[in-house]
Write a structure and sequence with these properties.
Layout (H helix, E strand, L loop, with lengths): L15 E8 L3 H16 L5 E9 L5 H9 L3 E3 L2 H5 L6 E4 L6 H10 L3 E4 L7 H14 L3 E3 L7 H11 L6 E9 L16 H4 L3 H4 L1 H11 L3 E9 L4 E3 L7 E3 L5 E8 L4 E7 L8 E8 L2 E6 L5 E6 L10 E4 L19 H17 L8 H20 L3 E2 L3 H4 L1
Parallel strand pairs: 1-2, 1-4, 2-3, 4-5, 5-6, 7-12
Antiparallel strand pairs: 7-13, 8-11, 8-17, 9-10, 11-12, 13-14, 14-15, 15-16
Length: about 400
Amino acid sequence: MATPQLARGDKRKMAREIRVGLIGYGQMGRIHAYAYRSIPIFYDPLPFTLKLQAVADVVPGAADKAVQQAGFARASTDWRSVVEDPAVDVVDVCTPNAGHLPVLEAAIAAGKDIYCEKPLCTNLDEARRILAAARRAGVRHQVVAEYRFLPALMRARQLVDAGFVGDVFHFRGLYLHAGYIDPQRPISWRLRREATGGGVLMDLGPHVLDMMRFLVGDAREVTGHVATFFDRRPVAERPGEIGEVDVEDAAQAHVRFDGKAVGSLEVSRCATGAEDELRIEIHGSRGAIAFNLMDPNWLYTYDATAPADERGFRRLATVQRYPAPAVAPAPKFSIGWTRAHIGAQYGLLSAIAEDRQPQPSFADGVAVHAHIDAIYRAAATGGWVPVPGVRAEG
């Protein structure tokens, strides 16, 4: 008997349905939910269909709000009920850092594919443990590093790979916020080591380090320095009480790469006047590249091979120039921060639908932890510290 032909449009019915379970509906959980809701509008055709299956949050009412606002099918205050739900294919982890490890271990044991906010865990040992477990279980895994999915930085990677920069001399990366310059701002989970594993280096540092690795590569060794400007802050849940801050407000590092290239990194939550200032500069033997997240529609390039009277930084329009099947918004329109998350989550889901490993993977998350670990140890000793085991784990 001849096989009946599918009518045009019926092929979409054959696409795999991917059902997402979200753990945590705070600030980042809301962004992830927004991105999932946007994917079917921004990408067409899709190699999958998407269902927001379940959401959990320990805060009473938060998960119910996610059902109302984002359209999840069910809500719970027990994250295990989401992870163990046979109707959930992908577990999306948006808890504070210390909550990652138990959720990740349970999700791997349940055979779920995983999308996890940065940093992967609270320390390098935990991150290595999770990567090894994910590999043994054969689950797919992606760590959130959304800036890789900005067209300007995608274009930067293309130029570096094509040799536009030549041999790299310098990498500079800064990520600056100003949210903690008020000494009366109460202690939050981000200022408690038990909840985070560290301070701003564990918060903003993963983004700068991922950009360094994405565009230049792993560092061979680092030095580091950390500073806490306000070591005591009010405790919001206990009016009148002052608590100790045991994490850093700012961190700086110098790095050495294989060969002669050098670099510098700086992160701060007390950079007065900054909003969301992620700046990247690369200088090489043939050219230079610069980017600022507060000016995200453009990549700045300098061609050192051009005639001397034609040299100068050029502004390349990158705006929303995503490859197909991205169809909206049109490439000419200015880009926003949430668009990078939409791109990152589309990358995850399309990789799952096409049975390949998403990128960046937990191996990238481990490599970021290895750099953070080395910077903290260098800050404690005052010397140069090798970055442990990055190549073996990547």
